[in-house]
């Protein structure tokens, strides 16, 4: 299963580490981590839209930080839905 982050960007759920509200990051250790990430590991999903969430991922490509215009609450709901759907498929 994949999580749609906006535009044509999708993330395999198995690579998802965290979904964070961008406003809650301003003065946190996570914000410090994101500031230190190399530019080649940052993906701005829709650079012309307001960024509302930060998605941390770890996969075969290494770590990535995605900035998405979709709210963290919406992305979290999508993730929960996909996990529920995936579980039903297995049962």
Key features of this structure:
alpha+beta, two-stranded antiparallel sheet, globular, four-stranded mixed beta sheet, 91 residues, 2 helices
Overview of the molecule:
The protein has 91 residues and is of the alpha+beta class. 30% of the residues lie in helices and 35% in strands. The strands form 2 sheets. It has a 4-stranded mixed β-sheet with strand order 3-5-6-4, covered by helices on one side. Strands 1-2 form a two-stranded antiparallel ribbon. β5 and β6 form a beta hairpin. The longest helix is centred in the C-terminal third of the chain and has 19 residues. The protein is globular and about 40 Å long. The mean pLDDT is 88.
Secondary-structure topology with pairs:
Layout: E1 2-6, E2 9-12, E3 16-21, H1 29-36, E4 42-44, E5 53-59, E6 62-68, H2 72-90
Parallel strand pairs: 4-6
Antiparallel strand pairs: 1-2, 3-5, 5-6
- State the secondary-structure class: alpha+beta
**Global geometry:** globular
- Low-pLDDT windows of residues: none
With strands numbered from the N-terminus, the spatial order across the biggest sheet is 3-5-6-4
Series of secondary-structure elements, N-terminal to C-terminal: EEEHEEEH
Per DSSP, the total helix count is 2
The main β sheet shows up as: 4 strands, mixed
Measured between the Cα atoms of the first and last residue, the distance is 16 Å
Radius of gyration: 13 Å
The proportion of strand residues reads: 35-45%
The portion of residues assigned to helices is 25-40%
Strand element count: 6
Mean pLDDT comes to 88
């Amino acid at each position: 299963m994949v999580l749609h982050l906006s535009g044509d960007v999708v993330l395999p759920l198995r690579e998802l580490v965290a979904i964070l509200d961008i406003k809650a990051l301003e003065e946190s250790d996570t914000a410090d981590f994101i500031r230190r990430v190399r530019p080649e590991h940052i993906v701005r999903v829709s650079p012309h839209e307001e960024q509302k969430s930060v998605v941390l991922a770890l996969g075969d490509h290494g770590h990535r930080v995605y900035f998405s215009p979709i709210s963290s609450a919406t992305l979290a709901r999508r993730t929960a839905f996909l996990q529920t759907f995936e579980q039903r498929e297995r049962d």
